[in-house]
UniProtKB/TrEMBL annotation:
Keyword tRNA-binding attributed: no
One Pfam family cited in the UniProt record for this chain: S4
N-terminal signal peptide: none
SMART domains: S4
Organism domain of life: Bacteria
Gene Ontology MF term list: RNA binding; rRNA pseudouridine synthase activity
GO BP: enzyme-directed rRNA pseudouridine synthesis
Xref: SUPFAM superfamilies: Alpha-L RNA-binding motif, Pseudouridine synthase
UniProtKB keywords: Isomerase, RNA-binding
Full protein name: 23S rRNA pseudouridine1911/1915/1917 synthase
Residue ranges of domain RNA-binding S4 in the record: 3-65
Protein family according to the UniProt entry: Belongs to the pseudouridine synthase RluA family.
């Protein structure tokens, strides 16, 4: 019995058909030892279908979307519930950069929490990495997030509290002002919906859980954030998305899936 290659790959390796098509397009699939780049190619049960080395492990991740490639930088959109950086879990973005950007020395420049979605910035050489670090030290890497928080916020906030991030799962907020504005959190309400508010949040050089901890400390915890909520939240997702990244010569925007296009288009970035 004959079937399309993309259907056969999806079934054999337990990945989505979309991911199978992308793998085939990138030339990562062999049929009887030969590279085939057409998902519509017909195969039969006796054909030997393989991935190059163990490339299929990458395609067990949700499909990672490349938002932009320009100069020596790129931006990708990280789905929620995937680790950004290397660790015990092999299902992470950093260890799979060579599959996302073949034949490039891709290096991860920023991190997002496991539950947080949105923009990750990639450098393709050491010069680009140094450029990013320089602009970050000068407060010129602007990171804007969209979040949905519990409570009705009607005015802008500037949160300057210090954060103790050492050796603890939950970051501790210290009610003493940070010396550097690089660690401040700017919050602006966008619109209210029943007992929640969608907010725009700006940081420059963030610490771990900075936005989550700062918002909770002023009484506006993020929807879905059981770590910083005083009561249990049954929402399955964390409503926090890294939406805009900008530095001199490079800017990228990524819409969160939970926000309508009409509302998103009305926000001034």
């Amino acid at each position: 019995m004959y079937k399309r290659l993309d259907i056969a790959v999806a079934k054999q390796f337990k990945i989505s058909r979309r991911q199978a098509k992308e793998a085939i397009r990138q030339g990562r699939v062999l049929v009887n030892g030969k590279n085939v780049r057409q998902g519509s190619f017909f195969v039969q049960e006796s054909d030997d279908i393989r991935f190059l080395s163990e490339d299929y492990k990458f395609f067990t991740l949700p499909l990672i979307r490349i938002i932009k490639e320009e100069r020596n930088f790129a931006a990708i959109s990280k789905p929620e519930k995937i680790h950004s950086a290397k660790g015990k879990d092999k299902q992470n973005i950093e260890e799979n950069l060579s599959f996302i950007f073949p034949n490039k020395n891709a290096q991860l420049l920023n991190r997002l929490d496991f539950l947080t979605s949105g923009i990750l910035i990639i450098a393709f050489n050491s010069q680009a990495k140094e450029e990013y670090s320089y602009y970050q030290s000068q407060g010129k890497t602007v990171k804007i997030y969209l979040a949905k928080v519990w409570g009705v916020l009607t005015h802008s906030l500037l949160i300057k509290w210090q954060l103790d991030v050492k050796k603890r799962k939950k970051v501790k907020v210290i009610k003493q002002e940070e010396r550097s504005s690089l660690r401040f959190t700017w919050v602006e309400p966008i619109f209210q919906e029943q007992d929640t508010t969608v907010v725009k949040v700006k940081i420059l050089k963030g610490k771990r859980h900075q936005i989550r901890a700062h918002l909770a400390s002023v009484g506006y915890p993020i929807v879905g954030d059981n770590l910083y909520l005083s009561s249990q939240d049954t929402t399955s997702s964390l409503f926090l998305h890294h939406t805009v990244f900008s530095m001199p010569g490079f800017k990228v925007i990524d819409k969160p899936s939970w926000l309508s296009q009409s509302i998103f288009s009305s926000i001034n970035f």
